[in-house]
Amino acid sequence: MSKVSYLLVTIMIFACLVSDHKVSAKIKHCDDDLLTFLNRCADYIGKGDPNPIPSPSYKAECCRVINYMDIPCICDDKQVEMVISKKRMVDICGQCGKPFAHGSKCGSYTVPL
């Protein structure tokens, strides 16, 4: 994902998050997790872009973020789905040791049985 595309995606998501949510500790926590997730895992989760195979160090950093973020909070945010692929999110979470149960949902994506 090019730096310009990444910046645009980040700005769009931030604008969506700020415009439609009330400020609370939980939402701020979720927003912080989302921005960190986008920053560290953008190459894996971009919607519409080819899914490249990033370097092992990039994947390790992405996995570190995934292991500490509030995954259900990010899955439940419907606005995020405009810019990231929930299927790719589920895939990378599984690769990082945080698999979704078969039949569970992340946004509009249902994990195959």
UniProtKB/TrEMBL annotation:
Keyword Signal: yes
InterPro entries the record matches: Bifun_inhib/LTP/seed_sf (IPR036312), Bifunc_inhib/LTP/seed_store (IPR016140)
Domain Bifunctional inhibitor/plant lipid transfer protein/seed storage helical residues, every copy: 23-106
Record Gene3D superfamilies: Plant lipid-transfer and hydrophobic proteins
Record's keyword annotation contains Signal: yes
Keyword terms: Signal
Signal peptide bounds: 1-25
Protein name: Bifunctional inhibitor/plant lipid transfer protein/seed storage helical domain-containing protein
Species this protein is from: Aquilegia coerulea
Phylogenetic lineage: Eukaryota, Viridiplantae, Streptophyta, Embryophyta, Tracheophyta
